[in-house]
Amino acid sequence: MVLGVGASVLTALGAGVLYGLAVWLAAAGQAQDPDLGRVAVRTAYLALTGAAAAYLVNRERAYRLAHAEVRRLLAELEEAHARLRTYARDMSRRAVTDGLTGLYNHTHFNQRLSDELVRAERYGRPLSLMMLDLDDFKKYNDAFGHVEGDRLLARMGSVLSAAVRETDTVFRYGGEEFTIIMPETGTEQARKAAERIRRTVEEAFGPASDSGCQGPMTVSIGVASFPVHGSTGTELIEAADRALYLSKKLGKNRVSVHGT
User: Residue 210: which domain range?
Assistant: First the structure.
C-alpha cells in the first residue's frame, strides 16, 4: 500500500518537473523571446505546483488508508486478545473442574478447605465438612455398566449442587465420593443439612423418581466440624472420613457425626 502511494507521488513529481523543464528548454532555444521565456518559467512553476498538489492529495489518501489499516489491525488484536482471555479462563476452569460432573475437583477441594479454615480461624467462626459416598456403587456399575455409572455420577453432582446453600461448595472427591464444605456452620446445623441432603438423594434416585438412572441409589454421609473435630484440613478430612465409615458400618443410607 505504501509503495503504491510512493510510486504515484514520484510519478506526479517527475512528470511535473520534466514537463516544466522541457517547456523552458524549448522556449530558451527559440529567438531569445523574453515573453516566451517568461511563459516557459510560468509553465514550469505551474507544473511543479500541480505535482505538489498531487503529492499532497496522495499523502492525505495514504494517511486515510494507513489509518484504516491501523484500525483494522487494532480490531484484529482486540479480537485475538478476547480469544486469549477466553482460552485462559477456560484452561483455569478445567484445571479445577471434574470433567464428568462439572463440580470442583479434588485439587481445588484441598485449596478451598485450606482457605476456609484460615478464614474460620481468623474470625473465630465454625466450619463443617461433609463426606458422602454412594452406597453399593460397585454393584450398580457391575449391574448396569460403566456408562450408566458415569451417568449416575453426573446426575448425583447436579442433585447435590441443587441441595446446598449458595455459601456451600460441592466437590467430587474421587470415584463415587463427594465432599461439601459448609462455612459458618456448626456441628448440629451441619448434621441437619446432611440429613436433608440424604433424604433429597433418596427421593431423587428412588424407585418412583425420574432420575433417568437404571436403579435406586442412596448415600452415606460423615460430618466433622472445625474446631471441635480438627484444626487442620487433614484432621478434618480424617474425622469426616471416620464418621462416613461409621455410617457405612451401621447400615448405609444414614448420617453420622464424628465422635457421636
Answer: 106-257
Contact 110, 229 (CB under 8 A): no
128 with 186: CB under 8 angstroms?
A: yes
Task: Pick the closest to residue 12 from 65, 61, 52, 64 (CA basis).
Answer: 52
Which of 58, 25, 63, 57 shows the shortest CA–CA distance to 41? 25
Last residue within a domain, chosen from 52, 67, 96:
96
3-class secondary structure per residue, the chain: CHHHHHHHHHHHHHHHHHHHHHHHHHHHCCCCCHHHHHHHHHHHHHHHHHHHHHHHHHHHHHHHHHHHHHHHHHHHHHHHHHHHHHHHHHHHHHHHECCCCCCECHHHHHHHHHHHHHHHHHHCCCEEEEEEEECCHHHHHHHHCHHHHHHHHHHHHHHHHHHCCCCCEEEEEECCEEEEEEECCCHHHHHHHHHHHHHHHHHHCCCCCCCCCCCCCCEEEEEEEECCCCCCHHHHHHHHHHHHHHHHHCCCCCEEECCC
Catalytic residues: 176
The number of residues in the chain equals 260
pLDDT in tens, 75-121: 877 888 788 788 778 777 778 899 999 999 999 999 999 999 999 99
CATH of the domain at 195: 3.30.70.270
Which tens digits make up the pLDDT trace of 32-79? Answer: 555 555 555 555 555 556 656 666 666 677 667 767 766 776 787 788
Strands 219-226 and 255-257: parallel
Same-domain pairing of 143 and 30: no
